[in-house]
Structure formats: C-alpha cells, structure tokens
Amino acid sequence: MSLADSPPLPGAPFFAYRDGELWVEDVPVAQLAREHGTPLFVYSLAALRAAAGAWQQALAGRDAQVCYALKANSTLAIVQALARAGCGADIVSGGELARALRAGVPPQRIVFSGVGKTRAEMRAALEASIGCFNVESVGELDVLDAVARELGVQAPVSLRVNPDVDARTHPYISTGLRDNKFGIPHDEARAAYRHAARLPGLRIIGIDCHIGSQITAVEPYLDALERVLDLVEAIEADGIALHHLDLGGGLGIDYRGETPPSPQALVGALLARLDARGHGRRRVLFEPGRSLVGNAGICVTEVLYAKPSATKNFLVVDAAMNDLPRPAMYDAYHAIAPVQPRTDTPTQTWDVVGPVCESGDWLGRDRELAAQPGDLLAVGSAGAYCMSMASHYNTRGKAAEVLVSGARAQLIRARETVADLWQQERALALD
Ligand code: LLP
C-alpha cells in the first residue's frame, strides 16, 4: 500500500504524514511509541489551542464564556492547556470540580451540570464559589437551597430546561428529548423558576439547555434556541431576570467525513437569531467538550497478531475496549491508519480487535489495511471520551498520555502499573 492509499486520519494539519510516516506536529509518532510504549495517547497542544481559538474567535466582542466540558477528557494537563486558552469548565462531579480547580480554572468560570449532585458536591462547589449550578430538577433546587443556607451563602443557579427537540444523533447521546432523564420539561420550567425565586438560598442568574452530542447540523440548536427564548420571555414576564443563556455543548467532529458546522458558523447562526429576537446583549455560555479535544488526540497501538481466516481476518492489537470504549458502547467509528505505511504487504480487510475477553472488544470493523505484527496503528479522533471513559477491565492499567508542542513532547500521564491497580485493595483477612 502506498502512502496515498493510507486511510485518512482526522486532525490535520497537526497529525499528518511526512517522509512516509505519521507525525504529530514536529515529532514522529513512532518515536513516541518507542519511548513510552503502547497503547499510548498522543495529543497536539497546537490542535487544542486551535480548537479553543475557534470558539473564542466566534464569540469575540460578546459577553461570553466557553466552559470546557471536562467529561470529554479530564487529564490535568489537557484541562490546564484549555484553561490557559481562556476556557472555563463545565463539571458534573466533585471529582471534576477538584480537577478544574487543580488545573487553574478560575472558580467563577465553572458551571456545575448533572442530574445527581450530592449535598457534599454542592457544598464543595459553594465553598469554591463556582459561577453557576445548572439545576436539573425541582428536588435539586430544594436541596441546593438548604445546603447554601447552611453555609450562609446564596447559590447562583440556572435551570437546565429540556427543549424537547431532536438532535438527530445516537440515542445514547441525545439528551434534549422529552423522555430523557435530563433537565426540566419545557412546560414545567416556568413554574420551577417561580419556585426557585421563592427560595432564599438561591440566586437565579440564567437558563441553560444541552440537547445532545456529536451534533453535525445547526438546525437542532436553532430549534432549541427558539424554544428557550420563548421561555426566557415568559420567565422574565414573571419578574425573574435571567442574566445568561447557556446553550450547552454537543458540536460534532469529523470521525469519518462528517462535516459539522465550525464553531464560527454555529455561533454565528445562534447569535444572529438572538439579535433578531432582541436578546443580543444577553451573556452567552457554551459547554463544548468533544469539539475542543476530539481531534486533538490519537491512540497509538501495536499489532500483536494477525489472524486471517476463511470468513474474517482479525488484527489483534494491544489497545482494547478498556482504552477506547466508544466502538463497543456506541458502535462508534474511529479511523485507523498505519503509523508507518508499508508497501511490501498486500492490503486486506481486517477487523481490528483488542485482547479483552469480549466479542464486543473491537476498535474497527472491515478496515482496509496493510499491516503485520509489530506494526503501529493510529486510532484517530481519540482525544474525547476515550481516556476519560477508560476502565481497568481485565486488570489492564490505563495507557500513558503524551502531549506534543512543536518538536517537544511531555509525558502527561505515566502508564499505570499493576501495583497502582490494586493499591486500594486489601488482602483477605477473614477466615
Ligand atoms: N454539557 C452537558 C450538560 C453534557 O451533558 C455534555 C455531554 C456536554 C456539555 C459536552 O458535550 P460535547 O460537546 O462533548 O458533545 N460518551 C459519549 C458522549 C456523551 C456526552 C455526554 N454529555 C461519546 O463518547 O460519544
């Protein structure tokens, strides 16, 4: 197979072939794999900065804040890089709160989403003086009110409303439909705001929605915006001022030739609609995750075995569903490309699978690849929802992570050892 025939890998120009092999910025990927072993996540700092810059530029001149959704990738150095690029944080747990603070995100730029915040998590977030709680139910309003009053403070809140629009994405990552566990139903939101306004421990500052993830069109966002603005007008008519509008995250990326709108196109369309409806001066927030980090990372894996057979050919690699859970969980597609494409081996159709003892442990199906044991493969679009969803299944330690900037590379997470895995376990002491 020639280089020209190599399957494309998203993330150009930060991940690109040069002199017959894959580079990340100015470092050959194979060199990093030699140094740090595989499976190895490799990120490009320039790609992270470019993605953050695209969002910031789209919002330039507006009263706005981009809050990076940490769940996409909460590795400290990644969060630090985005915080330094001006991003705040969208968090969903006490753990993510601690990570955001540790990474230097200013507390005022943190919004706390999620349907199941505990009292302890609320307390920690109030003590840190975060910017806003995105509250998802009336029950949560009451608990937050009580916790804030115990601490003698007022909690800044926004209600997450469910606009009941179809984001036209995978059902597991669609969150804006009525029968979904997220948010307060559109037709109950006004009453919920009136209730919130009566609670002395709360200070209402905004409204928010998030309709799903990997969205590749502007229309679902515009539908949601219209529905949310109807509510804003009704709620403000009730005498409750809403300072900001948080339109969530969800912007998709190119995994396999998808053409999602750029942040510029998406934000431009939304701001134009806001202006047209007379809401141009309202503060706006976004909570992107995937579109900031997804195509800023790859996962490098080594081919262990080639298992051709009459009906199926399997390439067994050293990365697995515990490192890259998206194919098993969502039937998701990630591009897979050779790090050093070969010309001496015929291209064949392979299922690329991991060593985990599950039939669901596959990374790619029916891929045209020329590969042999010992070769390195790059799994594309691995910056989002890979390491952050990784597990220890089959007692596999989590992979190492490296961040590249120009010709320099830094290990940002050391490979886990088996001793790390059982550190919290105790030997049997009962007889
Ligand atoms: N805000 C809220 C309230 C969210 O629930 C999410 C994602 C985001 C922001 C960020 O969405 P993004 O911009 O990353 O699409 N594990 C799945 C994705 C789950 C998304 C959950 N919520 C996957 O691997 O595709």
UniProtKB/TrEMBL annotation:
<keyword id="KW-0456">Lyase</keyword>
<feature type="binding site">
    <location>
        <begin position="287"/>
        <end position="290"/>
    </location>
    <ligand>
        <name>pyridoxal 5'-phosphate</name>
    </ligand>
</feature>
<dbReference type="GO" id="GO:0009089">
    <property type="term" value="P:lysine biosynthetic process via diaminopimelate"/>
</dbReference>
<feature type="binding site">
    <location>
        <position position="326"/>
    </location>
    <ligand>
        <name>substrate</name>
    </ligand>
</feature>
<feature type="active site" description="Proton donor">
    <location>
        <position position="357"/>
    </location>
</feature>
<dbReference type="InterPro" id="IPR009006">
    <property type="entry name" value="Ala_racemase/Decarboxylase_C"/>
</dbReference>
<feature type="binding site">
    <location>
        <position position="330"/>
    </location>
    <ligand>
        <name>substrate</name>
    </ligand>
</feature>
<dbReference type="InterPro" id="IPR000183">
    <property type="entry name" value="Orn/DAP/Arg_de-COase"/>
</dbReference>
<feature type="domain" description="Orn/DAP/Arg decarboxylase 2 N-terminal">
    <location>
        <begin position="46"/>
        <end position="293"/>
    </location>
</feature>
<protein>
    <recommendedName>
        <fullName>Diaminopimelate decarboxylase</fullName>
        <ecNumber>4.1.1.20</ecNumber>
    </recommendedName>
</protein>
<dbReference type="InterPro" id="IPR022657">
    <property type="entry name" value="De-COase2_CS"/>
</dbReference>
<dbReference type="InterPro" id="IPR002986">
    <property type="entry name" value="DAP_deCOOHase_LysA"/>
</dbReference>
<feature type="binding site">
    <location>
        <position position="358"/>
    </location>
    <ligand>
        <name>substrate</name>
    </ligand>
</feature>
<comment type="function">
    <text>Specifically catalyzes the decarboxylation of meso-diaminopimelate (meso-DAP) to L-lysine.</text>
</comment>
<dbReference type="GO" id="GO:0008836">
    <property type="term" value="F:diaminopimelate decarboxylase activity"/>
</dbReference>
<dbReference type="Pfam" id="PF02784">
    <property type="entry name" value="Orn_Arg_deC_N"/>
</dbReference>
<comment type="similarity">
    <text>Belongs to the Orn/Lys/Arg decarboxylase class-II family. LysA subfamily.</text>
</comment>
<feature type="binding site">
    <location>
        <position position="385"/>
    </location>
    <ligand>
        <name>substrate</name>
    </ligand>
</feature>
<feature type="binding site">
    <location>
        <position position="250"/>
    </location>
    <ligand>
        <name>pyridoxal 5'-phosphate</name>
    </ligand>
</feature>
<keyword id="KW-0028">Amino-acid biosynthesis</keyword>
<feature type="binding site">
    <location>
        <position position="385"/>
    </location>
    <ligand>
        <name>pyridoxal 5'-phosphate</name>
    </ligand>
</feature>
<dbReference type="GO" id="GO:0030170">
    <property type="term" value="F:pyridoxal phosphate binding"/>
</dbReference>
<dbReference type="InterPro" id="IPR022644">
    <property type="entry name" value="De-COase2_N"/>
</dbReference>
<feature type="modified residue" description="N6-(pyridoxal phosphate)lysine">
    <location>
        <position position="71"/>
    </location>
</feature>
<dbReference type="InterPro" id="IPR022643">
    <property type="entry name" value="De-COase2_C"/>
</dbReference>
<keyword id="KW-0457">Lysine biosynthesis</keyword>
<keyword id="KW-0210">Decarboxylase</keyword>
<dbReference type="InterPro" id="IPR029066">
    <property type="entry name" value="PLP-binding_barrel"/>
</dbReference>
<dbReference type="Pfam" id="PF00278">
    <property type="entry name" value="Orn_DAP_Arg_deC"/>
</dbReference>
<comment type="pathway">
    <text>Amino-acid biosynthesis; L-lysine biosynthesis via DAP pathway; L-lysine from DL-2,6-diaminopimelate: step 1/1.</text>
</comment>
<comment type="subunit">
    <text>Homodimer.</text>
</comment>
<keyword id="KW-0663">Pyridoxal phosphate</keyword>
<feature type="domain" description="Orn/DAP/Arg decarboxylase 2 C-terminal">
    <location>
        <begin position="44"/>
        <end position="383"/>
    </location>
</feature>
<dbReference type="InterPro" id="IPR022653">
    <property type="entry name" value="De-COase2_pyr-phos_BS"/>
</dbReference>
<feature type="binding site">
    <location>
        <position position="290"/>
    </location>
    <ligand>
        <name>substrate</name>
    </ligand>
</feature>
